[in-house]
Design a protein that fits this description.
The chain has about 375 residues and is of the alpha+beta class. About 20% of the residues lie in helices and about 30% in strands. The chain has 3 domains: about 130 residues, Elongation Factor Tu (Ef-tu), domain 3 (Beta Barrel); about 120 residues, Nucleotide-binding domain of ferredoxin-NADP reductase (FNR) module (Rossmann fold), CATH 3.40.50.80; about 90 residues, Ubiquitin-like (UB roll) (Roll). The strands form 4 sheets. The chain has a 7-stranded antiparallel sheet with strand order 4-3-7-1-2-6-5. Strands 10-9-8-11-12 form a 5-stranded parallel sheet, sandwiched between helices. The protein has a 5-stranded mixed sheet with strand order 14-13-20-15-18. Bound molecules: flavin-adenine dinucleotide (FAD) and FE2/S2 (inorganic) cluster (FES).
Protein backbone atom coordinates (compact mmCIF):
# COMPACT_ATOMS: atom_id res chain seq x y z
CA UNK A 1 0.00 0.00 0.00
CA UNK A 2 1.54 3.37 -0.92
CA UNK A 3 2.12 5.88 1.86
CA UNK A 4 -0.34 8.75 2.19
CA UNK A 5 1.31 11.88 0.73
CA UNK A 6 1.80 15.01 2.84
CA UNK A 7 -0.53 17.84 1.92
CA UNK A 8 1.08 20.84 0.18
CA UNK A 9 1.71 23.81 2.52
CA UNK A 10 -0.67 26.00 0.49
CA UNK A 11 -3.58 23.60 1.19
CA UNK A 12 -2.79 23.38 4.92
CA UNK A 13 -2.53 27.19 5.08
CA UNK A 14 -5.85 27.66 3.25
CA UNK A 15 -7.53 25.14 5.58
CA UNK A 16 -6.16 27.07 8.61
CA UNK A 17 -7.50 30.36 7.21
CA UNK A 18 -10.88 28.70 6.52
CA UNK A 19 -10.93 27.39 10.08
CA UNK A 20 -10.11 30.85 11.50
CA UNK A 21 -12.80 32.45 9.33
CA UNK A 22 -15.34 29.88 10.51
CA UNK A 23 -14.99 31.41 14.02
CA UNK A 24 -16.08 34.70 12.44
CA UNK A 25 -19.13 33.04 10.95
CA UNK A 26 -17.76 32.52 7.41
CA UNK A 27 -18.47 28.94 6.31
CA UNK A 28 -15.82 26.72 4.72
CA UNK A 29 -18.07 26.50 1.64
CA UNK A 30 -18.08 30.30 1.32
CA UNK A 31 -14.26 30.27 1.34
CA UNK A 32 -14.34 27.51 -1.27
CA UNK A 33 -16.83 29.43 -3.41
CA UNK A 34 -14.48 32.42 -3.47
CA UNK A 35 -11.44 30.28 -4.29
CA UNK A 36 -13.47 28.42 -6.92
CA UNK A 37 -14.15 31.67 -8.79
CA UNK A 38 -10.37 32.15 -9.16
CA UNK A 39 -9.73 28.47 -10.01
CA UNK A 40 -11.99 25.50 -9.13
CA UNK A 41 -8.92 23.35 -8.41
CA UNK A 42 -7.96 25.65 -5.49
CA UNK A 43 -10.91 24.61 -3.34
CA UNK A 44 -10.07 22.76 -0.11
CA UNK A 45 -13.45 21.71 1.25
CA UNK A 46 -15.48 20.64 -1.81
CA UNK A 47 -12.88 19.21 -4.19
CA UNK A 48 -12.85 19.50 -7.96
CA UNK A 49 -11.02 17.97 -10.89
CA UNK A 50 -10.57 19.05 -14.50
CA UNK A 51 -11.03 16.56 -17.34
CA UNK A 52 -7.72 16.53 -19.18
CA UNK A 53 -8.31 13.67 -21.61
CA UNK A 54 -11.22 11.48 -22.72
CA UNK A 55 -10.33 8.14 -24.28
CA UNK A 56 -12.72 5.55 -25.75
CA UNK A 57 -11.55 2.15 -24.40
CA UNK A 58 -14.27 -0.09 -25.89
CA UNK A 59 -17.56 0.73 -27.66
CA UNK A 60 -19.18 1.13 -24.21
CA UNK A 61 -16.36 2.21 -21.88
CA UNK A 62 -14.45 5.48 -21.78
CA UNK A 63 -11.67 6.82 -19.59
CA UNK A 64 -11.52 10.31 -18.16
CA UNK A 65 -8.04 11.48 -17.14
CA UNK A 66 -8.59 13.93 -14.30
CA UNK A 67 -6.36 16.60 -12.81
CA UNK A 68 -7.53 17.12 -9.25
CA UNK A 69 -6.64 20.09 -7.05
CA UNK A 70 -3.78 19.96 -4.54
CA UNK A 71 -6.22 19.22 -1.71
CA UNK A 72 -7.00 15.79 -3.20
CA UNK A 73 -4.82 13.48 -1.13
CA UNK A 74 -4.50 10.65 -3.63
CA UNK A 75 -5.68 7.08 -3.33
CA UNK A 76 -4.66 3.65 -2.29
CA UNK A 77 -4.90 1.34 -5.35
CA UNK A 78 -8.30 -0.36 -5.36
CA UNK A 79 -10.11 2.47 -3.57
CA UNK A 80 -12.99 4.40 -5.14
CA UNK A 81 -13.72 8.11 -5.46
CA UNK A 82 -17.19 9.59 -5.67
CA UNK A 83 -17.68 12.09 -8.48
CA UNK A 84 -20.49 14.61 -8.60
CA UNK A 85 -22.12 15.85 -11.80
CA UNK A 86 -25.15 18.03 -12.37
CA UNK A 87 -27.72 16.72 -14.83
CA UNK A 88 -30.78 18.89 -15.59
CA UNK A 89 -30.11 20.89 -12.44
CA UNK A 90 -29.89 17.84 -10.18
CA UNK A 91 -26.58 16.82 -8.61
CA UNK A 92 -25.77 13.11 -8.89
CA UNK A 93 -22.93 11.28 -7.17
CA UNK A 94 -21.47 7.95 -8.22
CA UNK A 95 -18.41 5.94 -7.18
CA UNK A 96 -15.67 5.01 -9.65
CA UNK A 97 -12.42 3.10 -9.01
CA UNK A 98 -9.60 5.21 -10.39
CA UNK A 99 -5.95 4.51 -10.98
CA UNK A 100 -3.25 7.05 -10.50
CA UNK A 101 -1.65 8.23 -13.74
CA UNK A 102 2.13 7.55 -13.67
CA UNK A 103 1.99 7.36 -9.86
CA UNK A 104 0.99 11.05 -9.55
CA UNK A 105 -1.13 11.94 -6.52
CA UNK A 106 -3.55 14.38 -8.12
CA UNK A 107 -3.65 12.93 -11.64
CA UNK A 108 -6.05 10.01 -11.79
CA UNK A 109 -8.05 8.18 -14.44
CA UNK A 110 -11.54 6.74 -14.11
CA UNK A 111 -13.03 4.33 -16.61
CA UNK A 112 -16.79 4.37 -16.93
CA UNK A 113 -18.89 1.61 -18.48
CA UNK A 114 -22.18 2.76 -20.03
CA UNK A 115 -25.17 1.26 -18.21
CA UNK A 116 -28.38 0.97 -20.26
CA UNK A 117 -30.69 3.68 -18.88
CA UNK A 118 -28.03 4.79 -16.36
CA UNK A 119 -28.03 8.51 -15.60
CA UNK A 120 -24.42 9.29 -14.73
CA UNK A 121 -22.56 6.77 -16.91
CA UNK A 122 -24.42 7.95 -20.04
CA UNK A 123 -23.90 11.59 -19.06
CA UNK A 124 -20.15 10.91 -18.76
CA UNK A 125 -20.12 9.34 -22.24
CA UNK A 126 -22.44 11.75 -24.03
CA UNK A 127 -21.87 15.14 -22.40
CA UNK A 128 -18.63 15.44 -20.40
CA UNK A 129 -15.71 16.81 -22.41
CA UNK A 130 -12.09 17.83 -22.02
CA UNK A 131 -11.83 21.03 -19.93
CA UNK A 132 -15.02 20.37 -17.90
CA UNK A 133 -14.79 20.58 -14.12
CA UNK A 134 -16.43 17.90 -12.00
CA UNK A 135 -16.74 17.47 -8.25
CA UNK A 136 -14.63 14.78 -6.67
CA UNK A 137 -14.52 13.43 -3.11
CA UNK A 138 -11.59 11.98 -1.15
CA UNK A 139 -10.78 8.36 -2.00
CA UNK A 140 -12.33 5.72 0.24
CA UNK A 141 -12.92 1.98 0.47
CA UNK A 142 -11.09 -1.08 1.72
CA UNK A 143 -10.83 -3.13 -1.50
CA UNK A 144 -7.06 -2.66 -1.32
CA UNK A 145 -3.87 -4.67 -1.02
CA UNK A 146 -2.57 -5.24 2.52
CA UNK A 147 0.47 -3.35 3.86
CA UNK A 148 2.66 -6.36 2.92
CA UNK A 149 1.67 -7.82 -0.42
CA UNK A 150 1.23 -11.61 -0.10
CA UNK A 151 3.57 -13.79 -2.23
CA UNK A 152 0.65 -14.96 -4.40
CA UNK A 153 -2.17 -12.69 -5.47
CA UNK A 154 -5.28 -13.74 -7.38
CA UNK A 155 -7.37 -11.03 -9.04
CA UNK A 156 -10.73 -11.99 -10.54
CA UNK A 157 -12.45 -9.32 -12.60
CA UNK A 158 -15.61 -9.23 -14.68
CA UNK A 159 -16.46 -6.40 -17.12
CA UNK A 160 -15.87 -2.96 -15.60
CA UNK A 161 -14.75 -4.73 -12.39
CA UNK A 162 -11.29 -4.63 -13.93
CA UNK A 163 -10.84 -0.98 -12.83
CA UNK A 164 -9.73 -1.50 -9.19
CA UNK A 165 -7.66 -4.54 -10.30
CA UNK A 166 -5.88 -2.43 -12.92
CA UNK A 167 -5.08 0.15 -10.26
CA UNK A 168 -3.53 -2.58 -8.06
CA UNK A 169 -1.65 -4.14 -10.98
CA UNK A 170 -0.11 -0.84 -12.06
CA UNK A 171 0.95 -0.14 -8.48
CA UNK A 172 2.49 -3.61 -8.03
CA UNK A 173 4.42 -3.35 -11.28
CA UNK A 174 5.57 0.22 -10.55
CA UNK A 175 6.78 -0.76 -7.06
CA UNK A 176 8.70 -3.82 -8.36
CA UNK A 177 6.66 -6.13 -6.15
CA UNK A 178 7.98 -9.67 -5.92
CA UNK A 179 4.45 -11.11 -5.72
CA UNK A 180 3.26 -13.59 -8.37
CA UNK A 181 -0.04 -12.39 -9.69
CA UNK A 182 -2.77 -14.18 -11.63
CA UNK A 183 -5.48 -12.08 -13.25
CA UNK A 184 -8.62 -13.87 -14.45
CA UNK A 185 -10.56 -11.37 -16.51
CA UNK A 186 -14.04 -12.26 -17.78
CA UNK A 187 -15.53 -10.10 -20.54
CA UNK A 188 -18.35 -10.78 -23.00
CA UNK A 189 -15.89 -10.73 -25.90
CA UNK A 190 -12.41 -9.46 -26.68
CA UNK A 191 -14.04 -6.33 -28.12
CA UNK A 192 -15.65 -5.60 -24.75
CA UNK A 193 -12.47 -6.22 -22.75
CA UNK A 194 -11.42 -2.89 -21.18
CA UNK A 195 -7.61 -2.32 -21.16
CA UNK A 196 -7.17 -5.38 -23.44
CA UNK A 197 -4.02 -4.06 -25.11
CA UNK A 198 -2.52 -2.54 -21.95
CA UNK A 199 -2.97 -5.86 -20.12
CA UNK A 200 -1.43 -7.88 -22.98
CA UNK A 201 1.57 -5.54 -23.00
CA UNK A 202 1.89 -5.67 -19.22
CA UNK A 203 1.89 -9.49 -19.28
CA UNK A 204 4.59 -9.50 -21.99
CA UNK A 205 6.99 -7.19 -20.15
CA UNK A 206 6.25 -8.43 -16.60
CA UNK A 207 6.76 -12.20 -16.23
CA UNK A 208 5.28 -12.24 -12.71
CA UNK A 209 1.86 -11.54 -14.19
CA UNK A 210 -0.14 -14.52 -15.38
CA UNK A 211 -2.89 -12.86 -17.42
CA UNK A 212 -5.87 -15.08 -18.26
CA UNK A 213 -8.51 -13.35 -20.43
CA UNK A 214 -11.76 -15.32 -20.68
CA UNK A 215 -14.79 -14.76 -22.92
CA UNK A 216 -17.96 -15.15 -20.92
CA UNK A 217 -20.41 -14.47 -23.74
CA UNK A 218 -24.08 -14.84 -22.91
CA UNK A 219 -27.08 -15.72 -25.02
CA UNK A 220 -28.70 -12.28 -25.31
CA UNK A 221 -32.26 -13.62 -25.56
CA UNK A 222 -32.08 -16.05 -22.62
CA UNK A 223 -29.31 -14.44 -20.56
CA UNK A 224 -27.63 -17.83 -20.05
CA UNK A 225 -23.82 -17.97 -20.21
CA UNK A 226 -22.44 -19.64 -23.34
CA UNK A 227 -18.76 -19.00 -22.66
CA UNK A 228 -16.32 -19.39 -19.77
CA UNK A 229 -17.57 -19.10 -16.20
CA UNK A 230 -15.74 -19.04 -12.88
CA UNK A 231 -15.39 -22.60 -11.56
CA UNK A 232 -12.85 -24.91 -9.91
CA UNK A 233 -11.51 -26.20 -13.27
CA UNK A 234 -10.84 -22.69 -14.56
CA UNK A 235 -9.13 -21.76 -11.29
CA UNK A 236 -7.12 -25.01 -11.15
CA UNK A 237 -5.85 -24.43 -14.69
CA UNK A 238 -4.99 -20.75 -14.17
CA UNK A 239 -3.53 -20.97 -10.68
CA UNK A 240 -3.18 -24.43 -9.13
CA UNK A 241 -2.50 -22.85 -5.70
CA UNK A 242 -5.64 -20.69 -5.75
CA UNK A 243 -7.11 -22.27 -2.60
CA UNK A 244 -4.34 -20.83 -0.43
CA UNK A 245 -3.86 -17.52 -2.26
CA UNK A 246 -5.26 -14.16 -1.25
CA UNK A 247 -7.94 -13.24 -3.77
CA UNK A 248 -9.78 -10.08 -4.80
CA UNK A 249 -12.91 -10.26 -6.93
CA UNK A 250 -14.87 -7.43 -8.53
CA UNK A 251 -17.54 -7.84 -11.18
CA UNK A 252 -21.22 -8.51 -11.81
CA UNK A 253 -23.33 -10.08 -9.07
CA UNK A 254 -23.33 -13.66 -10.53
CA UNK A 255 -19.50 -13.70 -10.70
CA UNK A 256 -19.24 -12.52 -7.13
CA UNK A 257 -21.87 -15.03 -5.93
CA UNK A 258 -19.88 -17.85 -7.57
CA UNK A 259 -16.63 -16.65 -5.97
CA UNK A 260 -18.36 -16.45 -2.58
CA UNK A 261 -19.63 -20.05 -2.99
CA UNK A 262 -16.21 -21.38 -4.11
CA UNK A 263 -14.45 -19.82 -1.14
CA UNK A 264 -17.13 -20.99 1.32
CA UNK A 265 -16.80 -24.72 0.60
CA UNK A 266 -14.35 -25.19 3.46
CA UNK A 267 -11.44 -26.29 1.24
CA UNK A 268 -9.81 -22.87 0.88
CA UNK A 269 -7.33 -21.42 3.35
CA UNK A 270 -6.81 -18.08 1.58
CA UNK A 271 -9.01 -15.03 1.95
CA UNK A 272 -11.38 -13.57 -0.61
CA UNK A 273 -12.20 -9.87 -0.76
CA UNK A 274 -15.19 -8.70 -2.80
CA UNK A 275 -16.20 -5.33 -4.21
CA UNK A 276 -19.72 -4.83 -5.58
CA UNK A 277 -20.32 -2.05 -8.12
CA UNK A 278 -24.07 -2.33 -7.90
CA UNK A 279 -26.60 -3.30 -5.27
CA UNK A 280 -28.84 -6.33 -5.76
CA UNK A 281 -32.45 -5.39 -6.43
CA UNK A 282 -34.84 -6.43 -3.66
CA UNK A 283 -36.62 -9.65 -4.59
CA UNK A 284 -39.81 -9.75 -2.53
CA UNK A 285 -43.44 -10.43 -3.39
CA UNK A 286 -44.56 -7.56 -5.69
CA UNK A 287 -48.01 -7.61 -4.07
CA UNK A 288 -46.75 -7.08 -0.53
CA UNK A 289 -46.35 -3.53 0.81
CA UNK A 290 -45.25 -2.45 4.25
CA UNK A 291 -46.10 0.82 5.99
CA UNK A 292 -43.15 3.11 6.63
CA UNK A 293 -43.03 6.14 8.89
CA UNK A 294 -39.92 8.29 8.52
CA UNK A 295 -39.17 11.17 10.84
CA UNK A 296 -36.71 13.89 9.84
CA UNK A 297 -36.35 16.89 12.15
CA UNK A 298 -39.91 18.07 12.91
CA UNK A 299 -41.47 16.36 9.87
CA UNK A 300 -42.87 12.84 9.74
CA UNK A 301 -43.83 11.22 6.44
CA UNK A 302 -45.73 8.00 5.79
CA UNK A 303 -45.65 5.81 2.70
CA UNK A 304 -46.20 2.21 1.61
CA UNK A 305 -43.02 0.35 0.57
CA UNK A 306 -43.27 -2.60 -1.84
CA UNK A 307 -40.84 -5.38 -0.93
CA UNK A 308 -39.45 -5.13 -4.49
CA UNK A 309 -38.01 -1.62 -3.99
CA UNK A 310 -35.49 -0.07 -1.67
CA UNK A 311 -36.93 2.19 1.03
CA UNK A 312 -35.37 5.18 -0.74
CA UNK A 313 -37.06 4.38 -4.08
CA UNK A 314 -40.35 3.55 -2.32
CA UNK A 315 -40.35 6.96 -0.60
CA UNK A 316 -39.49 8.75 -3.83
CA UNK A 317 -42.18 6.86 -5.72
CA UNK A 318 -44.62 8.09 -3.08
CA UNK A 319 -43.63 11.65 -4.05
CA UNK A 320 -41.25 12.56 -1.22
CA UNK A 321 -37.81 14.13 -1.62
CA UNK A 322 -35.72 11.95 0.67
CA UNK A 323 -32.21 12.93 1.74
CA UNK A 324 -29.68 10.81 -0.11
CA UNK A 325 -26.30 10.97 -1.83
CA UNK A 326 -24.71 8.09 -3.72
CA UNK A 327 -27.67 5.63 -3.77
CA UNK A 328 -25.02 2.89 -3.49
CA UNK A 329 -24.67 2.44 0.27
CA UNK A 330 -21.35 4.23 0.54
CA UNK A 331 -21.95 7.86 1.58
CA UNK A 332 -24.25 7.23 4.58
CA UNK A 333 -26.36 10.33 3.84
CA UNK A 334 -29.56 8.29 3.91
CA UNK A 335 -28.72 6.62 7.22
CA UNK A 336 -31.68 6.25 9.59
CA UNK A 337 -32.24 4.79 13.01
CA UNK A 338 -34.63 1.85 12.98
CA UNK A 339 -37.07 2.39 15.83
CA UNK A 340 -39.37 -0.50 15.00
CA UNK A 341 -39.64 -3.32 12.46
CA UNK A 342 -37.20 -5.23 10.26
CA UNK A 343 -35.40 -4.57 6.96
CA UNK A 344 -33.13 -6.51 4.65
CA UNK A 345 -29.65 -5.08 3.98
CA UNK A 346 -29.19 -5.74 0.24
CA UNK A 347 -25.39 -5.46 0.37
CA UNK A 348 -25.04 -8.41 2.77
CA UNK A 349 -28.43 -10.15 2.65
CA UNK A 350 -28.65 -9.70 6.45
CA UNK A 351 -31.90 -9.03 8.27
CA UNK A 352 -31.68 -5.95 10.50
CA UNK A 353 -34.29 -5.88 13.24
CA UNK A 354 -34.69 -4.23 16.57
CA UNK A 355 -34.73 -0.78 18.02
CA UNK A 356 -31.69 1.46 17.66
CA UNK A 357 -29.99 -0.24 14.71
CA UNK A 358 -28.81 2.00 11.88
CA UNK A 359 -29.83 1.29 8.30
CA UNK A 360 -29.24 2.92 4.90
CA UNK A 361 -32.46 3.58 2.98
CA UNK A 362 -30.82 3.14 -0.45
CA UNK A 363 -29.70 -0.43 0.24
CA UNK A 364 -32.55 -1.67 2.45
CA UNK A 365 -35.97 -3.10 1.73
CA UNK A 366 -38.78 -3.46 4.25
CA UNK A 367 -39.54 -6.89 5.73
CA UNK A 368 -42.31 -5.54 7.97
CA UNK A 369 -43.91 -2.20 8.85
CA UNK A 370 -41.06 0.06 9.97
CA UNK A 371 -40.57 3.24 11.97
CA UNK A 372 -37.46 5.22 11.04
CA UNK A 373 -35.73 8.40 12.13
CA UNK A 374 -33.29 10.16 9.80
CA UNK A 375 -29.83 10.67 11.31
CA UNK A 376 -28.86 13.39 8.79
C1 LIG B 1 -17.18 1.12 -5.00
C2 LIG B 1 -17.70 1.28 -6.43
C3 LIG B 1 -16.80 1.44 -7.46
C4 LIG B 1 -17.26 1.57 -8.78
N1 LIG B 1 -16.36 1.70 -9.79
C5 LIG B 1 -16.81 1.77 -11.07
C6 LIG B 1 -15.88 1.88 -12.15
O1 LIG B 1 -14.67 1.98 -11.97
N2 LIG B 1 -16.39 1.92 -13.43
C7 LIG B 1 -17.75 1.85 -13.67
O2 LIG B 1 -18.15 1.89 -14.85
N3 LIG B 1 -18.64 1.74 -12.65
C8 LIG B 1 -18.21 1.73 -11.36
N4 LIG B 1 -19.11 1.66 -10.35
C9 LIG B 1 -20.56 1.75 -10.67
C10 LIG B 1 -20.98 3.24 -10.73
O3 LIG B 1 -20.85 3.82 -9.46
C11 LIG B 1 -22.43 3.44 -11.17
O4 LIG B 1 -23.26 2.63 -10.38
C12 LIG B 1 -22.64 3.09 -12.63
O5 LIG B 1 -21.84 3.96 -13.44
C13 LIG B 1 -24.12 3.27 -13.02
O6 LIG B 1 -24.52 4.57 -12.71
P1 LIG B 1 -25.62 5.31 -13.60
O7 LIG B 1 -25.91 6.62 -12.95
O8 LIG B 1 -25.23 5.31 -15.02
O9 LIG B 1 -26.83 4.35 -13.47
P2 LIG B 1 -28.12 4.54 -12.53
O10 LIG B 1 -28.94 5.64 -13.04
O11 LIG B 1 -27.69 4.61 -11.11
O12 LIG B 1 -28.80 3.15 -12.83
C14 LIG B 1 -28.08 1.91 -12.64
C15 LIG B 1 -28.81 0.80 -13.37
O13 LIG B 1 -30.07 0.64 -12.78
C16 LIG B 1 -31.06 0.81 -13.74
N5 LIG B 1 -32.12 1.60 -13.05
C17 LIG B 1 -31.99 2.85 -12.56
N6 LIG B 1 -33.16 3.24 -12.00
C18 LIG B 1 -34.02 2.20 -12.14
C19 LIG B 1 -35.36 1.96 -11.76
N7 LIG B 1 -36.09 2.88 -11.11
N8 LIG B 1 -35.91 0.77 -12.06
C20 LIG B 1 -35.20 -0.16 -12.72
N9 LIG B 1 -33.92 -0.02 -13.10
C21 LIG B 1 -33.34 1.15 -12.81
C22 LIG B 1 -30.48 1.56 -14.89
O14 LIG B 1 -31.10 1.18 -16.10
C23 LIG B 1 -29.04 1.12 -14.84
O15 LIG B 1 -28.83 -0.03 -15.60
C24 LIG B 1 -18.66 1.54 -9.03
C25 LIG B 1 -19.56 1.39 -7.98
C26 LIG B 1 -19.10 1.27 -6.68
C27 LIG B 1 -20.09 1.12 -5.56
S1 LIG C 1 -27.46 7.47 -0.49
FE1 LIG C 1 -25.38 7.09 -0.01
S2 LIG C 1 -25.52 5.51 1.46
FE2 LIG C 1 -27.55 5.81 0.82
Amino acid sequence: MPATPTLPASVSATRKVASLLSHLGVSAHAVDDTLGIINPLLTVSRLHARIEQKVQETPSACTLVLQAGAAFEGLVPGQFVVIGVTINGVRHRRAYSPRSVDGATQRIAITVQRQPGGRVSNHVHDHLKVGDIIEIEPAAGDFVLPERTPPEVLLIAGGSGITPCMSMLQHLERSNSSARITLLYFARSSQDRIFAQALQEMALRWPQLNYVPLDSSVNTSTGTPTGATLCEEVLDRAMPTWRSATAWCCGPAPLMDTARRLWADGRTSGTLKLEAFGVARPSGDPNVRHQVSLQRHAEEIHFAAPTTETLLVAGEQAGYAIKHGCRQGICHECTCRLNQGAVKDLTTGDVIAGQGQTIRLCVSSALSDVQLESLN
